[in-house]
Amino acid sequence: MKTLLRLVLSAVAVVLLAKLLPGVFVDSYVTALVVALVLSLLKFLVKPVLIILTLPITIITLGIFLLFINAILILMADYFIPGFEVSSIWWALLFSFLLSILQSIFYSLLKEDKKS
């Protein structure tokens, strides 16, 4: 249940950012839900491989290159999903950064109180 709620919150974040950023377009709420699902699958399946392949540059840049890996994943989602469009890598980088911040805020609302 919590995973489904996280998926919906990610879709809400995608819709908010698509309305905010002129370089990102989502045509419907269903597409935003598909984008959230595909991004979570890409982060689960593809991101570990990309991190291992780019480990030297990630170490040299002290982890900053991970932002570019996230942007690449967003561009991959753009390629696979009709109705979702990101105009450049720079918009994907900004979208990735803001999506991470929004997801952190939304997911913090889901955390249960550890004291109880």
TrEMBL record:
Keywords: Membrane, Transmembrane, Transmembrane helix. The chain crosses the membrane at residues 28-46, 53-77, 89-110. PANTHER family: SLR0284 PROTEIN. It comes from the Bacteria. This is Phage holin family protein.
